[in-house]
């Protein structure tokens, strides 16, 4: 069951949760949640049918100049792709889903900044709604169920808004009602191999992720085994997302044998590619459906 009226008293800007542009503002139906009006209108959007952006190039790992050029290329590609996607999204929100450590918060922030959307991290919103400084503390003082109820309330409140990128918590996918909320926008699954997740988490520690926190043991091994269990329990819940962004696929396109070579920007660019393809397919399907319905009407009229 959902927590009744989390009442997001969101001082989002002051608390540093929103990273979008600060012009204007939209009043949310829940009253106190204000999000900045996106800069979308000011961005020159590229109409459908425009030239496709060049495919990702394989990166070489030599010298400083090369790296600088790669970063500049990446930033330009990201910007161009975001301009196209802005058009296709037409104000719809983007929800990032994926296992803990998959990069939802990191990649989501990049996507929001370049789209001119506001960014929200659902974990941070739950912390704020409950009035506690960390998810770990919420689990400890209350329970996982209490956290999940608040997580659903936060997603419900966000689902009535537009022009947001939302980084969800890794477990948000397990409740069907959360999908009802996320399906109001477009969902992106960051699919990262367990080994890479465990490496990332071992690097930063598990204190902020209560489901992985272990008092002892080798951090990588402990994280890997817990993540494997969770992945099994969650089955294919992540596959409900509208698009899947596979780090293994990106790495192989770029000629890398290891996903750890991929930057968050690479992943944001691929997410935009996938969103664009999804919306185009959806549009084509709708057009086919419309023309079928039209022919049927015409046939009936001639009878
Ligand atoms: N592409 C990447 N390459 C290397 N480390 C990354 C990448 N994306 C995220 N990280 C790191 O992995 C950790 C988890 O990322 P985060 O964005 O918090 O994931 P999530 O929100 O999905 O749990 C962070 O320490 C972050 O800096
Ligand atoms: O997978 C999960 O069940 C969780 C993921 C966490 O968010 P991140 O995926 O951002 O780490 C956070 O919501 C909580 O610790 C539970
Ligand atoms: Mg996160």
From TrEMBL:
Location (main, coarse): plastid
GO molecular function, one term: metal ion binding
Cofactor(s), names only, from the UniProt record: Mg(2+)
Biological-process GO terms, alphabetical: amino acid biosynthetic process; aromatic amino acid family biosynthetic process; chorismate biosynthetic process; shikimate metabolic process
Matches recorded under InterPro entries: P-loop_NTPase, Shikimate/glucono_kinase, Shikimate_kinase/TSH1, Shikimate_kinase_CS
Catalytic activity: shikimate + ATP = 3-phosphoshikimate + ADP + H(+)
CDD domains: SK
EC number(s) per entry: 2.7.1.71
Compartment list: Plastid, Chloroplast
Stored SUPFAM superfamilies: P-loop containing nucleoside triphosphate hydrolases
Gene Ontology cellular-component annotations: chloroplast; cytosol
Membrane-crossing residue ranges in chain numbering: none
Keywords for this protein: Amino-acid biosynthesis, Aromatic amino acid biosynthesis, ATP-binding, Chloroplast, Kinase, Magnesium, Metal-binding, Nucleotide-binding, Plastid, Transferase, Transit peptide
Pathway(s) it belongs to: Metabolic intermediate biosynthesis; chorismate biosynthesis; chorismate from D-erythrose 4-phosphate and phosphoenolpyruvate: step 5/7
Purpose of the protein: Catalyzes the specific phosphorylation of the 3-hydroxyl group of shikimic acid using ATP as a cosubstrate.
UniProt xrefs under PANTHER family: SHIKIMATE KINASE, SHIKIMATE KINASE 1, CHLOROPLASTIC
Family, per entry: Belongs to the shikimate kinase family.
Protein name (Swiss-Prot/TrEMBL): shikimate kinase
């Amino acid at each position: 069951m959902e927590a009744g009226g989390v009442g997001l008293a969101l001082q989002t800007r002051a608390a540093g949760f929103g990273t979008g542009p600060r012009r204007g503002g939209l009043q949310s139906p829940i009253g106190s949640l204000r999000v900045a009006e996106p800069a979308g209108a000011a961005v020159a959007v590229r109409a459908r049918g425009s030239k496709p952006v060049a495919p990702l190039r394989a990166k070489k790992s030599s010298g400083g100049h090369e790296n600088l050029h790669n970063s500049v290329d990446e930033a330009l590609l990201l910007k161009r792709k975001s301009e196209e996607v802005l058009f296709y999204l037409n104000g719809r929100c983007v929800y990032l889903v994926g296992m803990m450590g998959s990069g939802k918060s990191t990649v989501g922030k990049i996507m929001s900044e370049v789209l001119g959307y506001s960014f929200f991290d659902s974990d941070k919103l739950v912390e704020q709604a409950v009035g506690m400084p960390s998810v770990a503390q919420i689990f400890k003082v209350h329970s996982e169920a209490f956290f999940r109820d608040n997580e659903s309330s936060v997603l419900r409140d966000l689902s009535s808004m537009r022009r947001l990128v939302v980084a969800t918590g890794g477990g948000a996918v397990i409740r069907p009602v959360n999908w009802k909320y996320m399906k109001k926008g477009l969902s992106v699954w960051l699919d990262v191999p367990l080994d890479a997740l465990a490496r990332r988490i071992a690097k930063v520690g598990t204190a902020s992720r209560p489901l992985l926190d272990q008092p002892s043991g080798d951090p990588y091994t402990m994280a890997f085994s817990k993540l494997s269990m969770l992945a099994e329990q969650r089955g294919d819940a992540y596959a409900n997302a509208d698009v899947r962004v596979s780090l293994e696929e990106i790495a192989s396109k770029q000629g890398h044998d290891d996903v750890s070579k991929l930057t968050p920007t690479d992943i944001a660019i691929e997410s935009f590619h996938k969103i664009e393809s999804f919306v185009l397919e959806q549009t084509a399907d709708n057009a086919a459906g419309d023309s079928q319905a039209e022919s049927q009407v015409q046939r009936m009229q001639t009878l």
